[in-house]
Amino acid sequence: MALAAGSTTRLWTLVAKEFWRKTRRRLRAGPVYRWRYSGRTPERVLIAPPDLRLADPQIALEIYYGRYPLSGHLVETGGKSPFQIEVANRGWVKTLHGFRWLRHMRAAGTELAAANARALVSDWIAMHSNQISGIAWEPGTTAKRVIAWLQHSSVVLQGAEFPFYRAFLKSLAVQIRYLRSMAREMPDGKDRLRARIALAFAALSLPAPASALRGATRNLAEELDRQILPDGGHISRNPMAVLELLADLLPLRQTYANQAETPPAALMGAIDRMLPALRFFRHQDGSLARFNGMGATIHDRIATILRHDDTAGAPLLHAPHSGYERLSMGGVTVIADTGASPPIDVSNAAHAGCLAFELSSGRQHYVVNAGIDTYGAAEFRPLARATAAHSTATINDTSSARFSHSLRVNDLLGTPLLGGPQHVPCKRIDQKGAQGFIARHDGYVQRFGFQHERELKLSSEGNVLAGRDRFLRPGGAAIRNNGRDFVVVRFHIHPDINLLQDEHDRLVLTADEADTWVFTCTEVAPEVEESIYFAGLGGPRRSRQIVLAFKASEIAEVHWQLTRTGIAGYPENN
């Protein structure tokens, strides 16, 4: 089916903007424009901002021996500089030029590590500082590099001779001026916000006139107000974006304090909203719910960030601006996507998972979404983003949102999400001893003429999750039996869970030293099918899914239930 006219217009408007943006970037990288990046070289680095990202001295040793484990991909350079070799993996190349791996050298704390860091920075300056092109000078990568060079300037400059010291500061100044010229025209999303963060770091960490700090602070505040939602989520609706941005915003707040400068209210407010939002997406084992671009969780990263959260009490249950709901009681956590599709220009990582949910009990996950393989092959991303990879309903084997498959578009924009749910009304139905919500989405109305409505209610001290999936036409008319009303409601099961059938033909979900749950459905006999879990720490894993398959013209509403029959350490209650 053709895209709606509105989606088509927005897509090609975005293509035109991106084409113009890349054209201007090429012009600004040319010799006619490059003079604007020259200017006074700072005399010194005033302060090295802190870095909250985890560091491993062993990785510094690997890098010393020419092994670069970056972005989930290991490259051995065979004695050459990593900046001299051609590597096909784009993620690895971007991470190399982002220089965040300098933190491992700082963690090593040795003269050898400092000398190696200095040698690698020197290589980059010699090969890329005067050639403003390619991945190395993409504004998002440049922003990461500016932040990393400032944060780890102490180790890079340790024992440096004056010529290198000056070359480092000169290159840094050129990158900052380039980033300043590009920031306003960058595509919407976290890279543009990170560019503003990098420029604020630079204004605080290097000698600069007061006007430069005021301008950087003002631009940062405007971008924060625009990108960070009132409930602390990010406009992309990706939980990972909240985590990544906090890893930069918290050190920036500390740098303002260290320099006795007043941080903008927008920065303080954004952090105060984002920390509870991060907790909102967190299951009890510390991992983040797998929605809209979230893959495997590195638990220590989240713990490091949340040490800065002074918020007392339980996480919030309602994130209306981000479009998520949370149910939590009795050691059970349910997190659900109840939001419309994000704006098209920040939807490259968005999923077609409206009304999907995840269920964890204690520290074990039971019902999940497939998530993404963060460092895996790009060809698997469309599978992970499809509605069928989520614990929700699909109609006629079709996703509730569409993705661009045009090579011309993808070369410029990636794979934006098109024509997804636009109206997702949601109502909390909390009662004494129970938490719940009812939500519906219109992602299938244009193609198939009916909506999906889901009600979830957690009760009995967390022992019962009752669900209702209803399919209805706008106006209340009956759904037609026209061969376009086939529904599949999926419940993806975490690969660590054993899925068995008991003597009563019920499906039992259990794991070693974990709670036991039983799945039942009133109207449809559940079936078990193969599935895949993309978000494993070690890569994709085989898993299974519970499936309810039926025709909406014959069964317009199904009721299902997950009942906790045994709590770890206690006998089952039959």
From TrEMBL:
UniProt KW Signal keyword: yes
Domain Heparinase II/III-like C-terminal: 313-561
Superkingdom per UniProt: Bacteria
Any coiled-coil regions, as ranges: none
One Pfam family from the record: Hepar_II_III_C
UniProt entry keywords in alphabetical sequence: Lyase, Periplasm, Signal
Cellular location(s): Periplasm
Transmembrane segments: none
PANTHER family named in the record: HEPARIN-SULFATE LYASE
Name of the featured protein: Heparinase II/III family protein
Organism: Mesorhizobium caraganae
